[in-house]
Amino acid sequence: QEQLVESGGGLVQPGGSFKLSCAVSGNDFSTYFMGWYRRAPGKQRWWIATITADNQPAYVNSVKGRATISRDNAKNMVYLQMNNLKPEDTGVYYCNRIPAFVSWGQGTQVTVSS
After folding, report:
1. CA gap 24, 45 in Å, rounded
2. CA separation for the pair 37, 72 (Å, rounded)
3. N or C: which end of the chain has fewer CB within 10 A?
């Protein structure tokens, strides 16, 4: 069964940056489309970014220009770098395949606050 393990979150000041990591188990990672999602406080989980199997990215408008999604197929890893963070970027960040695996990881908490 595939597993997803997110890491790299923490407390960040407004204007700061983070780089999140997601380890993905499975033998076919290089063929997966992968996505990052955010669940803001009191809200549903929402899509943030996608990277295709051939490294084409896509972003939700609210993070476009501030976010970079990347992958390392040799390590079965996907990353999300975000800069110029805003308080509204606060939330639990998750990664998953697109289409999603049934089981999600535990996510990693990012809090943007001074």
Report:
1. 19
2. 19
3. N
